[in-house]
Amino acid sequence: MTCLSRRDLGLLVLRAGTGAVLMAHGAQKLFGCFGGGGLEGTAAAMEHMGFRPGRQSAIAAGLGEMGGGALLAVGLATPAAGAAAAGAMAGAVAVHAPAGFFSQGGGFEYPAFLGFTAAAIGLTGAGRYSLDHATDHVVDQPWTVAMAFLGSAVAAAAVVGRRAREQAQAQAEVETFD
Question: What is the pTM of this model?
């Protein structure tokens, strides 16, 4: 009989808690649960925040949060799950960054924390109490870590960069008319 591992138990608790929070945020975006806007409301909000097209942005953010959170919670495809959730949170950080760090002032503290936590779990691995372990790490290979985080970083940089360029262009147009 195997001894209970505190490290693996801690990873289970961290995965389950982080995954549940991310799933709830994704469910708000995709389905309107927990007072969220649902897909239509989130799409309109995404457009307003500068993420275009809004509907595709809402779907991507919702799936990154809900799907990444669900996979983190059960510990399956952990590198891809952590990278997807971290990439989704990068967009949220970009939105909140102008308000500073602390969330009480509308800052990026909370989405940054979720993103860093998801990334750390994706890099560390799910531990023994996970579906990755139960499936002999078939979708948790060293190359998947590199590919998942590289793909997520490239996608997040492209989306956030495009938004920043469009906002700068819109600001320049407003200043031209002033």
Answer: 0.92
